[in-house]
Each structure stands twice: as structure tokens, then as C-alpha cells.
Design goal:
mainly beta; 4-stranded antiparallel beta sheet; 12% helix
């Protein structure tokens, strides 16, 4: 498993950007994010890259819990 996102919630100012989002990415899997404008696609990518921390939920990248990793960058 490359990535697991469980019950991700992210508030941006007063807007609920990610509302209990769940998905997994397996090795050798190709994914795409298709949704309407303002649905949270960019926020998911920022979370995946470690640029933004979620308010609640769980992120596991390469078997490492990123929500509790001090090296995870926060710039929001």
C-alpha cells in the first residue's frame, strides 16, 4: 500500500474543504482526481505532498503515519 487516507477532514477558513474523505492507493496503481471546481482536489494534493495538515483523520504514506510525523511540513 502506497497511501491510505482515512476520514480526512480539512477546514480552510470557514469552508469545509475535505469532508471525511477516504481512499487508498496501491502500488502500480494510476489514479485521477475528477470533481467540480472547489471540491478539494488541490487540497488533497497538498495533503499528499505534506504541504498542509488535515484537521482530523489519518494519513499513512509508505507505511508511515504522516499525521504524527514532525518532518511533515505545514504552511497553511
Amino acid at each position: 500500500m502506497i497511501a491510505v487516507f482515512k476520514d480526512m477532514v480539512k477546514l480552510y477558513e470557514t469552508h469545509l474543504t475535505l469532508d471525511h474523505v477516504n481512499f487508498e492507493i496501491e502500488k502500480s496503481e494510476i489514479i485521477g482526481l475528477l470533481e467540480a471546481n472547489g471540491a478539494g482536489k488541490t487540497m488533497i494534493m497538498k495533503v499528499f505532498m505534506g504541504l498542509v495538515l488535515i484537521d482530523s483523520g489519518e494519513i499513512i504514506l509508505f507505511n508511515e503515519d504522516k499525521k504524527r510525523n514532525e518532518n511533515y511540513i505545514k504552511i497553511d
